[in-house]
Every structure is written in structure tokens, then in C-alpha cells.
Amino acid sequence: MILRRVAPAVAAGLANLVLTLTIVALPLTSTGCSKGNRPPVPAAPVTGTEVLGTLVALKDDRSFDGGIDLTLETAPGVREVVRVPSVFMAPPRESVQAMHEVVDAAKIGDRLRARGTRDETGALVAEVLEAMPQ
Length: 134
Description:
Strand content: 25-35%
CATH class of the largest domain: Mainly Beta
Order of helices and strands: HEEEHEE
CATH architecture of the largest domain: Beta Barrel
Number of helices: 2
Strand order of the largest sheet: 1-2-3-5-4
Structural class: alpha+beta
Distance between the termini: 97 Å
Mean pLDDT: 77
CATH superfamily of the largest domain: Nucleic acid-binding proteins
């Protein structure tokens, strides 16, 4: 008598479990199979941000083992801060030393181009710094 009552309950519970697993598994397994809804893949890797402007200010913290903050005017009244990392980080990279050489040769009014990534303050942390022809 007890077996007759338990069997339908177990069967109903098993049916609910199978239904739940099907509902969860079906969308997960079918997402990789669609052909028309894939987002386009960029042809080249995204390279960061570029700033091109005229040097209007320079804050040099190298005497304190720090880096250099350059202020570039990209358009009239529009200024961007570009951070050149310290050469005293371990190990010093040749690219950082090359950027410091560009800063040493630059003077207010020179055109510079910097490429890199933005930090939490919005400043561009330079990975490449170049002097541009006037």
C-alpha cells in the first residue's frame, strides 16, 4: 500500500528534476550553435588610447624616484595629462628610458604623441611617447 503512494510521488519528483535540468541545459548548450547572432570579431587587436597635442606643462618627479606628468593641449582649451612612468621601477624597461629621453629633449610648445592606457584618474599612462614635427 505504501509503495503505491510513494511511486507516483517519486515519479513526479523525477519528472520535475528532468524538466528543470532540461530548462537550464537547453539554453546553455544551444548558445554556441547559433550562426547568425555572433558579434563581429575585430580584425586587429585594440591598442589603447592615443593623445596628440602641444606640451604646455611638465611636472617632473624624477628627483623623488617618480615619473613625469605632461600636460598636452589637444585642442584650444582642452588639456590631457600624460603620465610617463618612473625609470626606477624594477626592472627598468628600455621603452620607459626612451620616453624619458623624449621628455629630456622636449620643451614647452613642442608637439608630442603618446599612446597607452587610462588610469583611474583619467590620465593616460604612456607606453610610447614620440616627438612630432612642428
